[in-house]
Amino acid sequence: MYKCIIVDDEPHAIEGLRKYIEHVPELEIVRTFTDPVKALREIPAADDVDLIMLDVDMPGITGIELARELRQKTDKLIFTTAHSKYGYEAFEVDADAFLLKPYQLSKFISTINKLFPKDEAELDGITDKDDFIFIKTKEETHKLIKVYFRDIIAVESKMNYVQVHTANRSILTYMTLSEISKKLLAYPGFMQFQRSFVISQDHIDYIEGNSIVMLNGIKISVGDYYKKYFNEFVDSKLLKARRRSS
């Protein structure tokens, strides 16, 4: 278990990180601070940790200044900020990663995986191997079904089970969405815009308002928490005409 401290003057940003860290069971939040000055007073006297996540723009003392004082207290250091201009300063204080807000869960998991690599997959019922996974079915627990990432359209939460929708079958397995999403969101092309679904952008048929319709007909309403990321995704993929002025 890796111990983590979060310092951010915005409580909603800390809450967002809490939700992200729920998808990374090897991370444990031991302290959070909304006051960077308080963090400067208390962290030096505390035990060393494995990871400190710092916002950059904070009142009283910036994340860069705070990092200079706390760098020896942590193995890994990640800056989170809405401003890319701090990249060079982050490099100067030996930061391990720089997350530009807003960032998706997949980006966060990918960053954590790079900083704390695993020797082997730890998910029960899933074996890590190149471009596919093995999934246990609910009905036949001794049977493992090989599923390629490229064939997965969506994964749907069903209480303590998940339904894996592929191009040619649907598989029900005993696992939570949080457990399987740790695997999927680290693989390119998978995204989450609703609490109950992880989807593959390769299998989106069309978007209508705040709804996503997949190639197999599944319709997913974008959750309020995910709308900002959804709008950014659509904007990044939207083909726009460059009109000439008359």
Automatic annotation (TrEMBL):
Name of the featured protein: Two component transcriptional regulator, LytTR family
Entry keyword set: Phosphoprotein
Domain HTH LytTR-type: 142-236
Modified residues (4-aspartylphosphate): 55
Organism for this UniProt entry: Pedobacter rhizosphaerae
Superkingdom of origin: Bacteria
Gene3D superfamilies per UniProt: 3.40.50.2300, LytTr DNA-binding domain (2.40.50.1020)
Molecular functions (GO terms): DNA binding; phosphorelay response regulator activity
Domain Response regulatory: 3-116
